[in-house]
Amino acid sequence: MSTDWDSIRGEFPALQRWTFLNTATFGQLPRRTTEAVARHFAERDERACHNFLEWFDDADRIRAQVARLIHCGPEDIAFLPSAAAALSLLLNGIEWGPGDRLVTLEGEFPNNLYYPSLLASRGAELVEVAWERFYEAITDRTRLVVLSTANYTDGFRPPIEEIARICIARGVLLYLDGTQSVGALEFDAASIQPAMLAVHGYKWMLAPTGAGFVYVDPSLRRRLAPNIVGWRSHRDWRRVDNLHHGAPEFVEAAEKYEGGMLVFPSLYGMGASLEMLLEIGPEAIELRVLELAAQTRDVLCRLGGTLIAGDSPHYGTPIIAARFDGVDASALARALEQRHVLVSARHGNLRVSVHFYNNRQDLERLEFELGALLGR
């Protein structure tokens, strides 16, 4: 059965006013998502929050939705407010020593550079390498590989399955930031088996900010201690009439990394967006975004842009970057914004990012307005 993309597009109010081609910065919220957040606040007023433990039952339902999306068990999922929080959990939980290495790619998102660069004080070395030298950089001193599933600047998509196999064979932990792909591209945690996958859902998962999750592999959970410990850390935290006093006994599930209260408004919003993603189907969404990405590349090439991807096979993502000779990408993005066409500029690239709610008319508008600015 074919997907009615026009009907789905109608669920996104902002698209009535904007030609929005900038999901790599922020995803648009479907109506059902903002309605879910509003319902939560309305219920707080109606029931005075006396049923707050039921909110955690809802959180477990959303946890199961996340597990369906990335093919793992609900027990593998913890809710965290950002990908940075997940990476900090992992980096702080490793006993770093002199000579240890952490390997990442050049041009990674700052999340994946800032904290790792501070590990020098503990003797560890952050190694940033070009893709062509990536595998040789993984040595017997490497403790951890940190990568984005899609690069935020140009959409580079490393072969995660192959990298994961190599890391597992060499006993190296693999941390993946899926914020720039999960929700648009399929991800199979059961097959890839990273040590950790972190996703902030406000981009391709179309969720409010503060709604994020982390997948933690069972083998890592057995040795990674929580770095946030609070009233929900003890295994019997639901017994609020008689909370445990003393040292907490942690559960084995990833939930032990949550510690305290959850960001429920954002979480309810993410649940509604997940409902939409699962209804449409991850496979259908990936086919749609890659088709739109191919059309976008054609538009940028027709206008004289030089695609950052070139002939590389590793750019199969909905993030497309191009440069135009003699033209400032930031100024170009600002000029397009004045024409109600939203794209972005990153490190000299004009970045266009398409999701399933975009259509051919969006790309025609981009071609017309961008062509006018370029004098083409």
Strand order of the largest sheet: 2-8-7-6-5-3-4
CATH-assigned homologous superfamily of the largest domain: Type I PLP-dependent aspartate aminotransferase-like (Major domain)
- Give the helices and strands as they follow along the chain: HEHHEHEHEHEHEHEEHHHEEHEEEH
Structural class label: alpha/beta
User: What is the CATH class name of the largest domain?
Assistant: Alpha Beta
Largest sheet, described in full?
A: 7 strands, mixed
Which ranges are low-confidence, i.e. pLDDT below 50, for 5 or more consecutive residues?
A: none
Bin the strand percentage: 5-15%
Provide the domain count: 2
Task: Report, as a whole number of angstroms, the end-to-end distance.
Answer: 40 Å
CATH architecture of the largest domain: 3-Layer(aba) Sandwich
Q: What's the total number of strands?
A: 13
Q: What's the CATH topology name of the largest domain?
A: Aspartate Aminotransferase, domain 2
- Helix count, per DSSP? 13
What's the overall average pLDDT, rounded?
96
Residue share in helix: 25-40%
Radius of gyration: 22 Å
Tertiary shape: globular
